[in-house]
Design goal:
By secondary structure, this protein is mostly beta strands. Helix content is 0%, strand content 41%. It has a single domain, classed as Jelly Rolls. The chain has no helices and 19 strands. Strand 12 and strand 13 form a beta hairpin.
């Protein structure tokens, strides 16, 4: 069920989502692979978004609105990882997010964000552009992913084009960052525009996503 969604807008809306409605909520959509493959592996019947135990493919939920890059925002979600497969890593951030068959079905370019690894406590920096000039997947040691329930956060400054990514490992209801980093979105060749700056989260193999919160400066609900 969606709370706090803006009405009558077509861009960068704020909302919270607890998935109590049992279906894919209206502000979100599921991606289709860049080769047209449709492998829907997400169910919504358990008051969350749950991925099937599927290897060799990834799928993402992304906002139907696609120009979040023009607004300051905070994007959060609770993630549960089972630690059983690298296909169960969670990818989280802003961009096109169409799964790429030539890149292990990771989110399509341009993209800026974080990956929390399922089988380790590493996180990865994600920043790619369409021109191939940036392709960074730097691994960050320390507390982050691994089996358990965690909370991820992205803060975006639209003026400076800087993203601050952070993760609270073993989240208990109060966000305290255990690991994080900043990324410079202005280095992405071609940049983010009204068609490619969705907010997205997803992956594969048994991940569970819940309690999404997006607070955008373009709506009254956007203050934090």
């Amino acid at each position: 069920m969606v709370f706090g969604a803006t009405v009558g807008t077509n861009a960068a809306q704020s909302f919270t989502e607890d998935f109590s409605g049992g279906v894919l909520p209206a502000p979100l959509e599921l991606t289709v692979a860049n080769d047209g493959t449709v492998v829907n592996q997400v169910s919504f019947g358990g008051n969350n978004a749950a991925w099937a135990n599927v290897d060799s493919y990834r799928q993402y939920m992304r906002t139907t609105d696609s120009n979040y890059s023009v607004a300051d925002f905070r994007f959060e979600a609770t993630i549960t990882l089972n630690g059983l497969s690298s296909w169960g890593d969670v990818f989280f951030g802003m961009g096109d997010a169409t799964p790429r068959g030539d890149w292990w079905w990771e989110p399509g370019r341009p993209v800026i964000g974080m990956s929390a690894e399922s089988g380790s406590t590493y996180t990865r920096e994600l920043i790619y552009d369409d021109a191939g000039n940036i392709s960074d997947t730097t691994r960050n040691a320390g507390r982050g992913g691994g089996a358990g329930t965690h909370r991820v956060r992205m803060d975006w400054d639209a003026e400076t084009q800087m993203a601050t990514m952070s993760i609270d490992q073993n989240y208990n209801g109060t966000f305290v960052s255990d690991n994080g980093f900043t990324l410079d979105g202005s280095t992405v060749v071609g940049g983010f525009d009204a068609s490619n700056s969705h907010l997205f989260i997803g992956g594969g193999h048994g991940i569970i996503i819940d309690d999404i919160s997006i607070a955008s400066s373009l709506s009254a609900f956007g203050d934090w």
